[in-house]
Design goal:
The chain is mainly alpha-helical. It has 12 helices and 2 strands; from the N terminus they run αααααββααααααα. The chain has helices spanning 7-25, 48-113, 121-129, 153-171, 186-204, 226-242, 250-268, 281-309, 314-341, 348-369, 375-382, 386-401; strands at residues 212-215, 219-222. Strands 1-2 form a two-stranded antiparallel ribbon. A hairpin with a 3-residue loop joins β1 (212-215) and β2. The longest helix has 66 residues, at 48-113. It is globular and about 60 Å long. The protein starts with 6 loop residues before the first helix and ends with a helix.
């Protein structure tokens, strides 16, 4: 809505968008322990510590920011308007990605890196992606068939949380909840961390990090991080209703930011035992460590960005409006860059930096100068016609002036 933009959140959205791109940019260069579409066997780099630190907080904070705007959108649009908006702005890009984007990048991976005879796109789509053909011998996964949401799992979850919120608001619409107003203290934050750490550890006794499950056959989920993601979704919805993010004391924000930096340093120097899960003490320690790091950086960054960057910037606002579309296209953009870098005779660390910088720049350029300028393409990739949206804002301002 005009004149109600939260400027520091624009800076935070752009920052988090970059952390996602950089995370994916490093996938071929060692240490991720996860599936990726490009294999670069000529590098000897190891980015495991970076992946652990980045994965500990960036998607949780992304969920927090996204959830923060769910109650605001619902209040502004009402039941039907909210449902239509979510299905259009999230559902259309998700469906388009599932039907077009993910099959194309999986097709590229199949023909380039799986070692099977090349297939036509139609043959691959029907037999391998949809699974109507026979499963190839020595199938290495990550699943059969190739049908999946890929990196779009995040917006799939966001759509599901939005629909759950709409359902709950209608089930309990006659119940008037009191307005919650509180100032977050160190005690509040510490209790939150302990509770989420416990649930995270319990989940990881059965589900390891980077183990993805198809819940109900279609919800793509990594259970090991689910307690953190869900906790931050709830926290974001509470923040929208209580406005506590604007009242984090400076001393609290700085303390937790410094704590997060200290935890990063301890990890970099090898004092944190990494664990993918299990019942042992290292799994418990790592669950506590990761939750502390996630919460510390989230609280610290929110307070820091609000204190230092809560100002209007047309460039940051433009980049922030790109972030949803950038999230959709950054994976195919990075795949092209990483594939082109395979033959470049430099270390994996240099390739990581190059892929990160080029991925950020090209994703935003493609989003702004190509996708957002073409109405139909814009609708498919970002769920909105940006030209029409801009004209509506202009008309709104004209009416308000008159």
């Amino acid at each position: 809505m005009p004149n109600t933009r939260i400027h520091f959140m624009d800076f935070l959205k752009v920052f988090l968008s970059c952390t996602v791109i950089v995370h994916h940019a490093g996938q071929p260069y060692g240490g991720s322990n996860g599936f990726w579409y490009v294999r670069d066997s000529g590098v000897d780099s190891d980015l495991g510590v970076f992946f652990g630190i980045n994965a500990a907080f960036n998607m949780s904070l992304y969920f927090f920011l996204s959830a923060y705007f769910i109650p605001l959108a619902y209040k502004h649009k009402g039941d039907i308007g909210f449902l239509k908006d979510r299905l259009k702005r999230i559902g259309i890009p998700l469906l388009f990605g599932f039907i077009v984007i993910i099959p194309l990048i999986m097709y590229f991976y199949y023909n380039e890196f799986r070692g099977y005879p090349n297939l036509s796109l139609f043959e691959y789509y029907k037999n391998i992606y949809l699974g109507f053909g026979e499963k190839p011998l020595n199938w290495a996964g990550p699943s059969w068939p190739d049908l999946n949401f890929g990196h779009l799992w995040f917006i799939e979850h966001l759509l599901i949380y939005s629909l759950i919120y709409l359902l709950l608001m209608n089930l309990f619409k006659n119940i008037k909840l009191p307005k919650i107003t509180f100032v977050p203290t160190n005690k509040h934050i510490f209790i939150f961390v302990i509770i989420v750490s416990l649930f995270t550890y319990l989940v990881r006794t059965n589900y390891a990090l980077d183990e993805w499950i198809g819940v109900l056959g279609f919800i793509q989920m990594e259970y090991a991080h689910f307690p953190q993601y869900l906790a931050f979704v709830i926290l974001g919805i509470i923040a929208a209703n209580s406005n506590w993010i604007h009242h984090i004391p400076k001393n609290v924000g700085k303390l937790w930011l410094y704590m997060g930096i200290l935890l990063i340093i301890l990890n970099v120097f090898g004092f944190i035992p990494h664990s993918r899960g299990g019942w042992d003490s290292s799994s418990l320690i790592y669950a506590i460590y990761e939750t502390f790091l996630c919460t510390a950086l989230s609280i610290g960054l929110i307070e820091l960005f609000q204190r230092k960057l809560n100002r209007k910037s047309k460039w940051i606002e433009m980049l922030a409006k790109n972030t949803f579309c950038v999230y959709i296209i950054q994976t195919p953009v990075l795949i092209g860059i990483q594939y082109a870098l395979i033959s470049v005779p430099v270390s994996g660390y240099i390739k990581f930096v190059l892929a990160s910088l080029l991925g950020i720049v090209f994703s935003h350029l493609i989003s702004y100068f190509i996708i957002r300028k073409l109405p139909v393409i814009s609708l498919l990739f970002s769920g909105t016609n940006h030209r029409r949206s801009q004209s509506l804002v202009v008309n709104f301002h004209k009416k308000s002036i008159n």
